[in-house]
Specification:
- The chain is mainly α.
- It has one domain.
- The protein has three helices and no strands.
- Helix 1 packs across helix 3.
- The radius of gyration is 16 Å and the shape is elongated.
- It starts with 12 loop residues before the first helix and ends with a helix.
Length: about 70
């Protein structure tokens, strides 16, 4: 019987942020992708993706306002 000890440890916030960052660029190594799939929970990925997307959009808005000012 497979127990909870067989699973790899959960990913840290930095690991999730790094995975989302590289995913925004579309550049991921196969081994890193497989390791991320084993460690990162879906809710972590969703939250990190939403936060990263929001930061990206806010950065674009600030840059446009600065250029147009």
């Amino acid at each position: 019987m497979s127990g909870a000890d067989d699973r790899p440890p959960r990913a840290s916030i930095v690991q999730v942020a790094r995975a989302v960052f590289w995913s925004f660029f579309g550049v991921r190594r196969g081994a890193a992708h497989a390791a991320d799939l084993a460690r990162i929970r879906p809710i972590q990925l969703i939250v990190a993706g939403l936060v990263a997307g929001l930061l990206f959009v806010l950065t674009l808005v600030v840059v446009v306002r600065l250029v147009l000012a």
